Every structure is written in C-alpha cells, then in structure tokens.
Amino acid sequence: MKFQKLFVVVVTFFTLTLFSQSDKVYRAEKDKIHNLIHTKLKVGFNFQEKELNGEEWVTLKPHFYETDKVTLDAKAMVIHKVTMNNQPLDYNYDEYELIIDLPRKYKRNEEFTLYIKYTARPEKVKQKGSAAITSAKGLYFINPTGLDKNKPIQVWTQGETEASSCWFPTIDAPNQKTSQEIYITVPQKYVTLSNGKLEKQTINTDGTRTDYWNFTQKHAPYLFFMGVGEYEIIKDKYNNIPVDYYVEKEYAPYAKDIFGNTPEMLAFFSKITGIEYPWNKYAQIVGRDYVSGAMENTTAVIHGERAYQTPGQLIDENVQENTIAHEAFHHWFGDLVTAESWSNLTVNESFANYSEYLWLEHKYGKDEADAHMFEDVEGYKQGQNYDKHLVRFYYNDKEDMFDAVSYNKGGAILHMLRNYLGDEAFYAGLNTYLTDNKYGTGEAHQLRLAFEKVSGKDLNWFFNQWYFNNGHPKLSISYDYNKLRKTVTVNIIQSQINEFKFPFAIDVFEGSKRTRHTVFVEGRDASFTFPFTKQPDLIQVNADGVLLCDITENKVLSDYIHQLKYAENYVHKREALLEIAKHQDDKNAFNAVADAMDDDFYKIRILALENINLINKYSKKSVIDKIMRIANNDSKTLVQAAAIETLGKLTDPALKPVFEKGLESKSYSVLGKSLVGMYYIDKQLAIQKSKTLPLEVKKIVATPLTRIYLEENDDEELSFIASNVMAGMFLSPNKKIQSLYKEAFDKIGKSNNTEAIKNLSDDIVAKGIQYKQYNFDKVGINLLRQMVQMQKTSNPSNKENNLKAIQIAMAKLLE
Q: Where are the transmembrane segments (predicted)?
C-alpha cells in the first residue's frame, strides 16, 4: 500500500496526536488452526442501504491438529444460513467472529466446504483502519444513490490490513493463502474489476449482469478486490499479459500518459528479480474518495484520485509514477511472498518503497533516484520514528506498522544492503528469497538467510542493528592534517545509544581530483588515515550518500563552494547549496549559487533559483538575463516555473514579456507562477487571464489564484478558494502555502459569502471523515466552531444562513 502524505499543521486552535505509545503486548503471527484452500463468492449490492448480499463457499482444512470447530472473521454482518452438504450447522456469532460447529472432527488431510449466506453491512463496522483510512470497513459505496451529480456512483474494496472480513467471512490474516472465484452482479451500465481473469459475463432478465472473475493462484485474503463503476478500459500489454487501465471517461485520453510506463516497470522488475511477472494480468483502477494513495490488490491495483492528471500537469511531472512502481513491485514482495505477520511488514513495504528508487534510477538516472531517497529519509527523520524497530513485535495497533520506518527507513536500509553486497549478489538474493517462498509467506530472518546463502557473508550484524533495533548513527567528524607526512586522519565518533558498524565512503579532493576510500567503521571511536599529494581542498564523508545517518562536522564557506562544484551525490550538492545561499553577501558565494543554475540535474537548478538573492550588490544584469533564458528555454517546465517565480520577486515591468509567454504555456506550473509574476506588474491582465481559465485548470493552479484573489479582496472568488483550503492547510509540505490557506480560512470564516461558507464547511466534513484516523473529525469540529465564533464576531448580514450551513456540517461530523 502507498499512502497519501498528510502534513500536520499545528495552529492556535488544535493539536494533533499522530502516534500513540506502544503497549507491551507481544504481537505474534496468527495461529494456523485451519488453512484456507479456496473461496467462492456470489455477491450483489444494495446501493440504497450500502449493503452487500452474499453467498460464500469456503473450503478449508485443519492445519495440523484435528478440529470440530471453525472460527472465521466476519465483521458487522447478518448471518442468514450456514450449511455443509446442504445440512444446517450450529454457529455462534458476535458480529466479529463466526464460530461454526462441524458435524465431526476433521484431520489435517481432510478438506471440507462450508456454505454461508450473509449480508455485509460495512457502515456498521467499528474498527480502526490503516494510516489515513477513515475506518476499515472493507467495502465502500461512493455516492450510491446518485444524489451528488458531480460524482459518479462507484463501489470498491480495501482489504489491508484485516478488512476483507467486512464483506466476506474468512480467516483474515496475512499468513493465509487462498484461490478465489467471484460472481459480481451489477446493473449493466457498470464495469467490474476483480482479481484474476474475467471468464464470463451473463446478462440477467432483471437488467443486471453477472461477471465471473476467476483467480486460480493463491494469495492472502487482504488482497481480494472488487471495483464497480462507469469506467473506460484502456488496453495495454506486457508480453502477452493484458495490462488495463480503468479510468473515468474524462481521463481516457490521458490514461496511457499516466500509467503507460507500467509494462516497462513489469519488464524491469521481472529482470532484476529473475522471476517473470507471476500473474495472468495487471489492471489499475482509480477510485473516487479512495482512503489512501494506492493498494496492491493482486492483478487489480486501485489508485486514489491523485492519479488523475491532465497534459498540463503531466508535462511538469507524473506525480503518481512512483506509486505506480510501488504497487507493481508489491506483486513480487507482498503478493507473491507475503509478510507472515504485520510485525514483519518490512518484507512487503520496505521493498515496495525501495522499488521507487530502483525504477527512478533505471528510467531517469541516479540523481533522480538519490533525490527521492533524500526526501524519504527526511520523512523518516522528521517523524517520531527514531525509537522504533523495523521489525516490531510490540506495537499498540497493527495499523501503527504503516509508518515511515516500515516504508522510508526500510527502503534506505535495503539501499545500504545493496551497496554492501553489490548489485549481483543483492538481486540474486531477491531471487532466492522469492523462489524459496513463492505463494507463501516470509519474514526478515528468511530474507537474511537468502542473502547469506547467495553471498556467503554473515549478515546477523546487519539485521540485528537495522532490522531488530532502532535509530541510526549520529556521527561527529573531525580531521587532522600532517603536512610533513602528507596525510589526513578522519576521526569518527558515534554519539547515539546503540553502537553501529558500517561501511563508509570517504572522498579526498585535491582540486578536481577525487580519491575514494571505503572503510569499515567498528566501535564508537574510529580513525582512518589517508595520504595526499597536496593539501586537500575537501574531505567528503559518506561520499556515496548511502549510509542512513546524521553528521556533524565543521566546514567553512570555501569547503561548501568546493563541495557544490565537485561532489557527485545529490545530497551533498543540496547541502552545500543551501549553506552557500546563507552567505551571498560574499561574491564567491553568490557566483556559486548563480553557477548552480546551470547544473545538469534539474532539482539543483530549481534549488539555486529558489535561493538566489537578486537584491544585493553582486546581482548583475547577466545573472538576471540567465534566469530569463532559463524561464524561456529550460528543458524542464518545473525549472522554468522556478525561474519565473524568482523573476516575479523583482516586480520589474521589463520582465512582462517573460510572464506573457508563461501565460500561454502548456505547463500549469509555469502558468501559475506567471499569473503571480504578472499580477505584480499588470494586475488587470493577470486577473483577466485568471477569470478566463476553465474551472478544471483553475483547480490545478488554485494556490497562485488564491494568493491573487486574497490580495485583491475578491470576495466573488471566495467560493472557489473555499474548496481548496483544507488541502492547502494540511496536505501541502510548504509552510508558505499552509500560511496562505490559513489566511483564506480566516477570511472565509468572517465573510458574508454563504456559498463559500458552505463549500468550506463541506470540505471540512469530507476531510474530517477521510482523515478520521488522524483525529481530523475532531479537528473539523474545532474548525467549524472557530467559524461560528468568526461569524458572531464579524456579524455579516447573511449570518443566519452562514451559521445554518456550519451547523449542518457540524452535525454530519458528530454523527
């Protein structure tokens, strides 16, 4: 699973608690009393009541010991009948577990099939869901009665972690594997998607159609999937395997632009694992109001609406591409071999996370991959994650495992392991692990044994410190130069509680000449001495950027200038650029930042443009001319946009032609930045352009438009701004954007605009429900109460209608 990131903003009227303290209950793998063998379902939907009417034939056998009872997970259902061979069976049901009395004791080699007729009631389910999931109700009806004319009717399922048992009785544990058949009956206008192959479609006399989906291989119950809706199916293929994209009609022309790299991903992942894609199809569907980023249901991946993009966005970047790779790699790590328990989630999610790096490196180069790894590592470091083990047998709730340790840190750890073993041994180890455990389960120990078997190296030390312990090295670095002997000694002191050992790359720079030394650090205090021909200009530690660590060292401005010019790793260039940018009153520093605008890697160019100080004595016309050329001609539209934003800060009428050209760009990022730049030199033209934009474009460039409309005090546009406030305040990592939308919230809260009040209130309700896991329902109540106070204080003429809209929203959140 890939999560949509939520950036927490603490404002004056609320505080969020994202992490609870782990308790001391040992979280074991679920005991195998019975094994699932096969699951056959026939389902239909009651859209009005948001219910599923189902029949199930589930085949099981005792795992080892003979038994005369079966316990199935079945949440919030109505059980109508349980039989075996047409004979009714006694059972007990408490709305969580269905305990069935068998007619006799069955031995471990005896299979039996139970028939269960039931009604699933997902709205009655009461259980916590994975990060950002409202509640794990398993089955989601979207606009089921069609009242919202701006939203299609859809049904989709979400099984991870243990929510498939909200729509069919099963043993809902990742260490179970079953084949499946599903007969889905829907109105004929709808398309269906499930795991495996669509074998047959039958038109029924009542205007419905029954689709028969057959999945003959084994996978875990949480990977079962159903999707229903009015979709266009865009067909693609990998070798002879169907690769299909299920999208709403509006996005059909762009489906291959969004998902079109999928066949190449499947080919690449097949190559590096040495295991050809092991399933009979690969389909991807986009679900409205989906509760996360995406989910790796076997052969039937679901994505959230963020996947929907138009050419004006895709020309800048495909923001879903990493997620597409992530879910594809899960079809090896997670689907083919599944974590035997949530404690071992790392063997699913750490690999899916690292696949993003592997794909970016393969497709776009090492700089792109390293930049992505840096962002992931920062996400781990900035959270409350330091004390958590990667493999955790003690946690408060299984959903707590879905965090920046299992994902981000786990991916970084695999990167270190790959670096230590070398590519050939690393990929051979992946093949051994997958081959030995295919269609079964795995844990970290099996992973270690696979790598040891291939490489011949003992890896207990690596797994003990990175998988079964917490934290990361915190290093203090100092240097001793001996000019007589022409040597430099690098001193490394570890200050964290747990002592680590690790390979460590150190570069010695003599001018542009770089000499790489790879050492192995053991102990809290280590020193390594290297020769030099002339006094080094720079010593770069963790030179390959592989080690997950914090480093403290004393560097001066000249060190950083040399580092920016000659270091190869993105992280070191980035670090140097940001440090140099603090000292642009120094001519050499300013020139270094200006030179970085020509860097080969576009993210360094963007960073230089964002940090160049054009208001100083060294800001020559030549530098501004360079930025103008970048704004007009850079190969990356995101760099063009950054250049336009930088030029906009000058508020120079002479730059009007740059902004005029940007207003005609196909890139929405360039268009948005050009609108703001133009606004400060020709307000009338910028506002006129903004008013002519189609609504779908306005939504995409909402942030620059919000900035303009707020400065203009354009109350007519408040209703448009209102629908973007919550996303801007809570989903953006940019503090300036968060502040902008907080200002918008305050303005709308005090306004006389009833439509804006209603739009904002509705959005608060939607986000409050969607992010209930983060207590956003409580946050929403606080926000609505804040709006009530604002209305009472400002006392607008429409106060009565405004308060009514707020009260209706509050009632929905309090339900």
A: none
Q: What is the pLDDT of residue 624?
A: 96
Nearest Cα residue to 174 out of 341, 400, 406, 352: 341
Q: Which CATH superfamily is domain 474-554 in?
A: Aminopeptidase N, middle-beta domain (2.60.40.1840)
Q: What pLDDT band is residue 11 in, cutting at 50, 70 and 90? A: very low
pTM: 0.94
- 489-516 burial, b if ≥16 CB within 10 A, otherwise e? ebebebebeeebebebbbbbbeeeeeee
Distance CA 599, CA 573 (A): 10
Q: For domain 337-467, give the fold.
A: Neutral Protease; domain 2 (1.10.390)
Could you give the CA distance from residue 615 to residue 643 in angstroms, rounded to a whole number? 15
pLDDT at residue 13 above 70?
no
pLDDT at 131: 42
User: Sheet holding 139-142: strands in order across?
Assistant: 139-142, 154-157, 226-229, 191-194
Which residues face 502 on adjacent strands?
Answer: 521
Using DSSP's 3-state secondary structure scheme, residue 156 falls into strand
Residue 6 has pLDDT above 60, yes or no: no
- Residue whose tokens read 């994650």: 385
Over 70: is that where the pLDDT of 774 sits? no
**Residue 549 is encoded by which pair of tokens?**
């660590």
Strands 502-510 and 487-494: unpaired
Look at strands 226-229 and 154-157 and give their pairing: antiparallel
